[in-house]
Amino acid sequence: MIVEQRTYRFKAGKVPTFMAIYEEKGLEIQKRILGNLIGYFATEIGPLNETVHLWGYASLDDRAARRAALMADEGWRAFLAEILPLLEMQETKILLPTGFSPIA
């Protein structure tokens, strides 16, 4: 298993706006296509106005196929068009569990 960590920084004060749009229009699409949502978080201390979410995949090939399917979804593309003006930065990391990780 691999874990993708996606961090989005939003314009000041826009995280609640994003969350409302995401819960209404984006979450179910991602859950249906990407499958394994490990966690979704908003920052409270440190860099503010950020969300961090973790998605599990069987492999990098599994991730690539699922991300391609997500980008092909019309509803997802409409959602992106709505939230892109709220974003300032995106960062993606691929995390490899250690041998003793509970989710290895």
Q: Describe it for me?
A:
Helices cover 41% and strands 32% of the residues. The model has no long low-confidence stretch (mean pLDDT 96). The chain has a single domain (2-95), classed as Alpha-Beta Plaits (2-Layer Sandwich), CATH 3.30.70. A hairpin with a 7-residue loop joins strand 2 and strand 3 (50-57). It is an alpha+beta fold and 104 residues long.
Q: What are the main properties of this structure?
A:
104 residues; alpha+beta; Alpha-Beta Plaits; 32% strand
Q: In brief, what are we looking at here?
A:
The chain has three helices and four strands; from the N terminus they run E-H-E-E-H-H-E. It is α+β, with helices and mostly antiparallel strands and 104 residues long. A four-stranded antiparallel β-sheet has the order 2-3-1-4.
Topology (SSEs and partners):
Elements: E1 2-10, H1 15-34, E2 36-42, E3 50-57, H2 60-72, H3 74-83, E4 87-95
Whole-number average pLDDT? Answer: 96
Percent of residues in helices? 40-55%
Q: SS-based structural class?
A: alpha+beta
Biggest sheet statistics:
4 strands, antiparallel
Under the CATH scheme, which architecture would be assigned?
Answer: 2-Layer Sandwich
CA radius of gyration: 14 Å
Q: Strands across the major sheet, in which order?
A: 2-3-1-4
CATH class placement: Alpha Beta
Can you tell me the overall shape? globular
Report how far apart the termini are.
6 Å
| Strand residues, percent | 25-35%
Count of DSSP strands:
4
- Reported by name, the CATH topology is Alpha-Beta Plaits
State the helix count. 3
Show unreliable segments.
none
H/E element order: EHEEHHE
Number of domains: 1
